[in-house]
Amino acid sequence: MDKKRQQQAKVNQFLKEGITTTHQISRNSRNHVDHDPEPVFHVRSRTSAAQGQNNHQQTHIQYESLDYDVCDNTLFQDEQRKLLRDRFSLRTHFTRWIIFILIGIITALIACTIDIIIEELSEIKYKFLKQSVDDNVPMTDRNGDLAMPFLWWILLSIVPVAIGATMVTYIEPITAGSGIPQVKSYLNGVKVPRIVRIKTLAVKAIGVITSVVGGLAGGKEGPMIHAGAVVAAGISQGKSTTFIKDFRIFKAFRDDHEKRDFVLGGAAAGVSAAFGAPIGGMLFSLEEAASFWNQNLIWRTLIASIISSFTLNIVLSAYHGLQDFTFTGLFNLGKFAEPLSFEYFELPLFMALGVTGGLLGAAWNSLNMRINKFRKRFVPWKVGKVFEAILVAILGVTMACTMIYFINDCRPLGNDPTIHPVQLFCEDNEYNAVAALWFQTPEATVRALFHDPPGSHQILTLAMFTLVYYVLSCATFGLNVSLGVFIPTALVGAAWGRLVAMLLFYLFPAAQFLHPGKYALIGAAANLGGVLRMTISLSVILMETTGIETSFFFPLIIALISAKWVGDYFNDGIYDTVIEVNNVPMLPWEPLPQYKGLTANEILSKPVVCIKLVDSAHYIYEMLRRCHHNGFPVVDDVADDRRSEGRVCGIILRSQLIVILLKSLYVENKRFWLPETTIQTFRDVYPRYPSIKSVRPLDRKINYTVDLSMFMNPSPVRVNMHDSVPKIFNIFRALGLRHMLVINNENRIAGIITRRDFIYK
Q: Phi/psi zone of residue 670: left (φ > 0), alpha (ψ -120 to 50 degrees), beta?
């Protein structure tokens, strides 16, 4: 009994000293003294002290990294040899293609459902509002009573907005916004909690419908990317952890490596469904979302995008009664009646529009970031977030009604494609052009600005509409509702682009090249480039959506690049800004300048909590209880239990150790579990691995041992302590690593590097 107590005391003392020293040495090595809580990432990080001042401001979400690197242990190698021997690898390859096709089909069907519901509800809403205006306001008398239409408009706006905001706030807060920053973070290697669950998809779909029908300044296109990611993550796993149902299919794809590739295909399928742009969807994933690519993944992603666009085309064309399958996407801008052409002397003008879009986009991003920081600080209550969304909806209706009442802009009927033209304060056979901008969905308004004939609006109308919608969209993005930023950004850009063409035509009436639709398209591209900072994929999306000729690609790319360069001078794109505000540890494309000239020895964290190749089960259990690290180097040639000085022979994950303890995979009872243990033993509990709290105290198994030789990854990525930081950063990012071991010349552990160590604070 005394021997048992001595052993336990020894383990406890070692753990206490080792884990305490882990953080003390890491901090003291930077001459920092810090007693604030541990960093969000729970890793031994040299940035923990540097960011200590800001810990109290960080979100409570604990971000972890994905294990994109395949655990190439003995069990995995046995499975690979078995698959090769049974010719099963061909079947797995074929199954992977089938999953990508299913992702495209289901994503398109969800997009169709959302679009049809929004269209039907919006039709009912705006038809009722038109009838209310016609019944309460005399046709030519400006003293008519707008009070009842105004009140009905507010009621029809705040009810759906309140429903959507309540669901997002109280049921699934991760569904707020477009979801693109969260998907981008996931594909970068960050495990964002609850991002790809079925409940998230359901709340997202209902939230988008209620927000768009409620008339908020946003669109449904952005959330479709998130929806596609959820569909991909769900289908590829062959089970539902939400409903606790395992269909026992696709078991070979139950790991982070495979799952993230499928999520990438789902994001591309979402873009394709939203815009009817399969090439644009693939390029969007390449330019904006993905961090890791290969040729096979490009092909599968393209197939998912094409299938998604084709399925949506068939369903929506049938719904609208079209015979030629021309309804290509949710964001259908229609085809220009005549091919768009340009003169070469217009190129400087297009560049100036791009510069304007960059300035406006940078100002929009800066203002939106300040508003969202204000929200985070002063509106922390859930009920306050719901009422804030209702308040913004009321503000939008009030500003729209104010414009309609005070601006007299009547145009002859027949020139405007608005479904429900309102004769408010206009003569017979005329319609109110201001009301036409507001009495329809934002997508329909963008389409109208692209295709309305010259003279469809007054200069004052578009100027006020641009100003109002610019402010309104900035206040809307960041609310606790499911909405995207693409449509309002395009709408603002189309409005001021058309306004520029009208002003130039007013100054130069003889200029025949000033096509308002052409400048609306360039303005939309410039504004999108200034806010989103996308170039290649955005230009292709606009080309596929509008059906313009490839010859017009040059003006588009000039405007987009000009907008991006100007905007980048002031701040980051809106998606990167949201990621930064949420303190997500994203890895940039290139190492930060502060790391130039440094070596691995200057950024590593040490000493490292290690495990011997054959170690005590009690030590492993107590170590997992006392620390929260997720990767542990496996060492041998250990002298006097100084594990942190051992020779590296592999690495093992926290999730693997917990499964080993839960399944009692000990050396002493090896003959019972060895024949039945495969790599599938660990995949069956993916993705919600149990915590150490689910492991019962060892009691009688306190003297048992664990042999990690068949469970650990024997080939972890190792770098020398003298290697340069830019070099190891490129390795870390290219391979999608979670842990990188730093060794000395004798292959002994010198430290460990994780994602957090590359983020300068």
A: alpha
Please, which pLDDT band fits residue 482 given cuts at 50, 70 and 90? very high
CA 173 vs CA 179, 195, 382: distances in Å: 11, 10, 10
- CA distances to 92, 250, 560, 568, 587 from 563, in Å: 45, 44, 5, 8, 24
CB pairs under 8 A, 24+ apart, for 290-297? 290/187, 290/264, 291/187, 291/188, 291/189, 291/587, 291/733, 291/736, 292/68, 292/260, 292/734, 292/736, 297/261, 297/264, 297/265
Total residue count of the chain as it appears in this document: 761
Is-contact 650 708, C-beta < 8 A?
A: yes
Token pair of 297 as six digits: 């993944």
Phi and psi at 412, nearest 5°, equal: -70, 145
Q: How far apart are CA 434 and CA 642, in angstroms?
A: 77
Question: Distance (Å, rounded) from C-alpha 635 to C-alpha 717?
Answer: 15
Q: Name every residue whose Cβ is closer than 8 Å to that of residue 584 and which is 6 or more positions away in sequence.
A: 63, 181, 185, 190, 192
User: Strand pairing of 190-191 and 647-653?
Assistant: unpaired
Could you give the percent of the chain with pLDDT greater than 70? 88
Per-residue confidence (pLDDT) for residue 235, from 0 to 100: 92
With tokens 């500003």, the residue in question is: 399
For residue 365 the two structure tokens come to: 């991003």
Q: Which two tokens stand for residue 259?
A: 């799952």
d(CA 78, CA 65): 27
| Range of lowest pLDDT (274-278, 297-301, 422-426, 695-699) | 422-426
φ, ψ of residue 732 in degrees (nearest 5): -60, -45
368-388 b/e (C-beta count within 10 Å ≥ 16 → b): bbebbeebeeeeeeeeebbeb
Residue-wise pLDDT for 456-479, tens only, equals: 889 999 999 999 999 999 999 999
Beta bridge partners of 476: none
The answer to whether 291 and 187 are in contact (CB under 8 A) is yes
Question: pLDDT at residue 28 above 50?
Answer: no
Tokens of 518: 């052409």
Mean pLDDT of the chain: 84
HSE-up of residue 207 (Cα within 13 Å, Cβ side): 36
DSSP string, 169-236: HHT-GGGSS-SHHHHHHHHHTEE-TTTT-HHHHHHHHHHHHHHHHTT-S-BSHHHHHHHHHHHHHHHH
Question: Over the stretch 102-129, which tens digit does the pLDDT of each residue have?
Answer: 999 999 999 999 999 998 999 899 888 8
Whole-number percent of the chain with pLDDT over 90: 46
Q: Are 451 and 334 in contact (CB under 8 A)?
A: yes
Q: Is 289 left (phi over 0), alpha (psi -120 to 50) or beta?
A: alpha
- Assess contact for 556 and 537: CB atoms under 8 A: no
Q: Which two tokens stand for residue 282?
A: 């693939």
Distance CA 215, CA 631 (A): 48
Extract the tokens encoding 222.
Answer: 């952005």
637: left (phi over 0), alpha (psi -120 to 50) or beta: left
Q: Strand 430-432 to strand 410-412: parallel, antiparallel, or no bridges (unpaired)?
A: antiparallel
Name the 3-class secondary structure at 754. strand
CA distance 152 to 60: 40
Query: What element of type H or E holds 719?
Result: strand 718-720
The reported pLDDT for the residue numbered 38 is: 29
Q: How far is CA 544 from CA 187, 196, 268, 420, 461, in A?
A: 25, 29, 15, 28, 30
pLDDT in tens, 321-376: 877 766 766 677 777 777 788 888 889 999 999 999 999 999 999 999 999 999 98
User: Predicted confidence band at 527 (pLDDT cuts at 50, 70, 90)?
Assistant: very high
More confident residue, 98 or 702: 98
